[in-house]
Every structure is written in C-alpha cells, then in structure tokens.
Amino acid sequence: MKKTIAALGVVLLALGGVGAWWFTRTEPIPEVLETVEADPATVSIPGLRGQPPLELASLHGKTVIVVVTGTWSAKSDEGEATNRALSRWVLPEDTVGYVVADAGGMGVFSDRIETTMASYASEVRFPLYVDYEGVFIETFKLPKGHHGLVVLGPDGQIVARHSGGLVGDELDALRETIGAREPEAGPAMPEAARAGALDPETCAQTTCAFVFVGPGKVTRADIPGIRPGGFEGDDDARLAKMLDPAVRSVTLARKMKLSATKGALVGDVDEAISSEGWERIPWAEGADARAALGVGEDVPAIVVFDHGREVLRVEGLVRLHHWGRLADLLGVEGFNDRRPPRG
Hints:
Layout: H1 2-24, E1 44-45, E2 54-55, E3 63-69, H2 71-74, H3 80-88, E4 95-102, H4 110-121, E5 128-131, H5 135-139, E6 148-152, E7 158-163, H6 168-178, H7 200-203, E8 207-218, H8 235-241, H9 245-253, E9 262-269, E10 278-281, H10 287-293, E11 301-306, E12 309-315, H11 320-330
Parallel strand pairs: 3-4, 4-5, 8-9, 9-10
Antiparallel strand pairs: 1-2, 3-6, 6-7, 8-11, 11-12
C-alpha cells in the first residue's frame, strides 16, 4: 500500500501543484496532541464498494481500535511494529479493529484509489476504510500524513490516542490497555515432520518454516516481478496471478532471505527461481511431512515452528499480514506487508 499512496501523491503533485501538495502534506507531530472537542460518536466514514459505513456510534459497548495510515507512514516504516503487533495479538471478544486510510481532499481520485485499496483490504486483519473527507484525523486531532492510533472504550470515550509508531514499552502498554495477549505456542513438532534438513532436532534450536507450495509446478514465467523471464502483464493481470496460492507463496518466500533460521519450499519449484536460504523439497518427497503436520495432499499451506513449538499455521491463500508475521518469526528485515500483492 505504501508505494500506491506515494505514487498517488506524485500524480497529485503533477496535476495540482501547490493544491495537491496541501492534500498530501505531512504535518509535524506535536509533543502533545490537541484536545479532542468533537464527540467521537459523530464519526461516520463511507465504506468501499459493498462495505457498510464505519459508524463509531454503532460500536457502543465494544472496545474499538482504529489504525490510521497517512502519506508519510505509507512510504516509510512508521507504525510497522504497531501494525505487526495488532495483526498477531489475540484480542478480547468484545474488541474490534479497523484501518482508516486518510485520503482527505483526494476524492477526485476515488475510483483509482478504491481499486487499489479493494485489492489490499482482504490482505489485512481489520476492515479497511478510505476517508476522503479527512473526518477521522480532524475529529481526533491527529497530524496529517502519519501513522495514527485511536482506542475507544465501551462507553465511546477515548482510552488511547497516538501519532507515530509505537515500539518497545509503548507497545506493551497498548497491549495491556486493550487487554490483548501474545499468541501462545501450539503443539510440539511431530517426530515424523521431516523434510530435508528440517527435523525436530534442528527446529528445536531455531525457527523453521514449511511452505507447502502445492502439487502443481511453478515456473519462472509464473512469477511477477522477476526479470528477465518472469510473468508480464498490467497491474490487474499481476494481481490476478498473485491470487494463485502457489504463485504467491513462491513470490513472497523468495523475498525473504534466510540466514539463522530455516525454511523449506515443498513443491515443484523451477530451479531458475532464486530463493536464498530456502531448501527445495519436491512435492512428492514432502508427503510424509504433510501427513505428519495434517496438511492435505493438495493443499498449499504454511506451518511454522519456533524452537520446536507450532506458532503459525495458514492454509490456502496466505494473506499479507500472515506473511508479515512469518517475516518477524524468521528474522527477515525489510519485508513489505503494506503493498498490494502484485509481485
């Protein structure tokens, strides 16, 4: 998403000069945020196509977390730790979350923006809204352009409000405030879960990721973004290609360069597709590991063990926020889980 919003900013500047700059500007974060005077219950943001509006008044009785993304935070790593935490934490049953992309003043580009955002909306944990009027940041007095966070209690009152990303103790404080918890490790790695160098003995000492690509062959010509010889096509064609679970898994895994941790691509992946640090296991040779892990013989999946305990399992099309979690577990730096998956 960050490159899309940044690109929109460039287009706006080209088309509208100073006026466009005003809509895409980044304001400084003050030491103390301005006092909120408006009633949060008045906030209503229209949904994307087919999506109900976000009306804070209707959420009375729930704890509400709203993440705001702006032009600067979308093209930087600001807020990344907050986003990753909110994607992995186990939330109380009465807690709901939303993402609001601030696009105040950019309604003239709504068709273009919504096409992009619609492709990204299914990739994040919380429902995504686009605020063309800037209502949210104006109501909660958040500086434009930055990652923002607002938490409302069940009574509709502000419990927490922050501009800029949270890290370390600040994140711990947020987790305690909303009553969230870190996910607990699952069962131990089965003795029969072996594929190449990945076995219970090795994986008891590090993090191991099994990426079951699927039974079909994946060639270089299937992978968007590889040059030369990769998949060619416009944005729509590349997006459609990335909705193939096998293509997505190979495309994103190859962007994760492994060193201290272990990973195996279990599938018939063309050797012409590079994937630094990942062991290649043919699909047929992964049958025992799939059976031991309870993964169907025709099912793409990711199963991850951290020091011998299961910490992530996703089947089918693995969404970007799960890939962000995988990057954290594998110690991968710089993996972008805020860009629509076009390869």
